[in-house]
Every structure is written in structure tokens, then in C-alpha cells.
Amino acid sequence: MPTLGNPRNTIEIIQKYGFSFQKKFGQNFLIDPHVLDKIIRAAGVTKEDCVLEIGPGIGTMTQYLAESAGRVAAVEIDANLIPILQETLAEYDNITVIHADILKVDIGEIARAYNGGRPLKVVANLPYYITTPIIMGLLEGNAPVDSITVMVQKEVAERIQAGPGSRDYGALSLAVRYYAEPYLVANVPPNCFIPRPNVGSAVLRLTRRRENAVQTKDRELMFRLIRASFNQRRKTLLNGLNNAADIPFPKETLAAAVKAAGLPDNVRGEDLGLEKFAELADYLAGQESGPPALPE
Questions:
Q1: Do domains 7-208 and 219-285 have the same CATH topology?
Q2: pLDDT tens digit string along 231-253?
Q3: 7-208 in CATH: which number?
Q4: Exposure check for the chain: N or C terminus, fewer CB within 10 A?
Q5: CA of 135: how far to CAs of 149, 208, 254, 263, 285, in Å?
Q6: What percent of the chain stands above pLDDT 90?
Q7: Which CATH number describes the domain made up of 219-285?
Q8: pLDDT digits over 67-121, tens only?
Q9: What DSSP assignment string belongs to the chain?
Q10: d(Cα 237, Cα 221) in Å, to the nearest integer?
Q11: Span 21-79, pLDDT tens digits
């Protein structure tokens, strides 16, 4: 089977099967061998690894992964791509294609079935419309994952990488950093894909932390504080928290928490790192909250 990193071979396969790109699945196939090589190197894939690939498409990156990894489990949601994958991956005996929705897959079961329960390395060219749910699902769900190396929309990569005080900094930046260490591998222009997306892309590697970035008495409360502070980011932290329906503390208690964390009255949420949000959560966790928090 010819290497699919070659655009001509990709087009031939698409035409042979009369494949139509599905907007609902956000399909953009990578056709640049240099970018594919960068992704494999960035993921640090070796023959000791089992790789979970999300959305293999017609198998372009899957072929590259199979050459480097000991085992590849590729999860594809589009039934129309399964027969194509059976052809393009026929020469490889270390690939298993799973027809399923990654958001509904038991990743622990994949690790047990194909990697003796050891952590997987995730590699993917993610559909842009569902990037955040996939990444946060992998991180928050305690999936047995060692690292996540993904192609994402450039704007999302910038938001994940952003630090306090910057325009792109927000709840997503903090949520990802709590679980993983982000590293921007490379920017990727639209002409590296079929069809060409309307936006730039980037390869991002997230290395799972052995321990979460901060320790807090109430993680759920900490993330409620983070979300509330960025929902009204032009307001001060105190006013943003006071206006949030699911932050049930009176303004006096919130003001005391801000003061206890050594923060000025006019500080904004976008100026704080995880450590300060953890301090706020720990202070508030020990206070009388008044009415119960609203369900999320």
C-alpha cells in the first residue's frame, strides 16, 4: 500500500471509494509528510508504546504510527471510513481499528486489552469542533494516558499555552495545566490538509503530570471559582465571584478570601495562577457557605 503522506495517494484513495468529507465529523486529512514526522517525534513513540489514535481518517498518520509503535489502537467514528482503513492498513499486523465514538469509549479497557493496563500515548489530528471535550475527557476522566500529542486549531493551542495576564488566558489554560504540562510543537498552515481548513493549526503535546499541579481541599470548588472569574473577565475577581450563581458565599466572605490570599481588592481573575485559585478554594472550603451551590 503506498504511503498516504503523499497527497496524490490520498486523493486516489478518496476517489476510489467515492468518499465524501463529513462536516459533522470535522474531517481534514493531513497530507504533509514533514508534519507527520514532527508529530511522531514529538510524541516520542517507540516500539515499547501502545498508541491510541483518535480519528485515523483514511489511515495516513496510522501508517506512520505503526512503523514506530509496538501497537496502535485507532478509534474512528465514521462508518464510511472503516472499509478504507481495512485496505490502507492491511499490511500492518500491529493495528486495531475500533469503530466507536471516542467520548464513549472505555480507554482503560483499551489499555488493558492492548497494553497490559499500562498508560497509552494518545496521538490525534482532532476535529476542531470537539477538541476541548476530548482533551478534557482524557485528562479529567483519569484515563491511563501518559501523553497527548494532538493537532488542534491554532487558537485553541494558544489558549491552552497562555499564562496569567495574557488575552488568551482563561479557564481552559488553567484546567489543562492542572493535569498536564503543555508544549507547542509546531504551527501548521492550512495547505497541509485536504480539504483546507479556514484556520491555522498547531501540534500540541500535553505531558501528564505525576501529581496534579496544585493540591486543594476542594477541587470542584476551585474550578467553579476559575470558571466564575473568567465568565465576567472584565470585572474584578471579587465582583465576578459575587455575581456567579454557583458561588454561594456572601460578598464579605469572598472579600476575606481575596485578602487572605494576599491579593488586592481590584485584582482580576486573569491575573491569577492555579496556586492562588487553590488558596481561595481552601479558604472558602472552611467557611459557612449559606445556600447550597446550584447543580452544574
A1: no
A2: 988 899 999 999 999 999 999 99
A3: 3.40.50.150
A4: C
A5: 10, 12, 31, 32, 28
A6: 80
A7: 1.10.8.100
A8: 999 999 999 999 999 999 999 999 999 999 999 999 999 999 999 999 999 999 9
A9: ---TTSHHHHHHHHHHTT----GGGT--EE--HHHHHHHHHHHT--TT-EEEEE--TTTHHHHHHHHH-SEEEEEE--GGGHHHHHHHTTT-SSEEEEES-GGG--HHHHHHHHHTTPPEEEEEE--GGGHHHHHHHHHHTT-SEEEEEEEEEHHHHHHHH--TTSTT-SHHHHHHHHHEEEEEEEEE-GGGEESPPSS-EEEEEEEEPSS-SS--S-HHHHHHHHHHHHHTTTS-HHHHHHH-TT--S-HHHHHHHHHHTT--TT--GGG--HHHHHHHHHHHHTS---SPPPP-
A10: 15
A11: 777 777 888 989 999 999 999 999 999 999 999 999 999 999 999 999 999 999 999 99
**Residue 292: predicted pLDDT:** 45
Phi-psi region of 145 (alpha: psi -120 to 50; beta: other; left: phi over 0): beta
Dist. CA 180–CA 174, nearest whole Å: 10
Question: How long is the chain?
Answer: 296
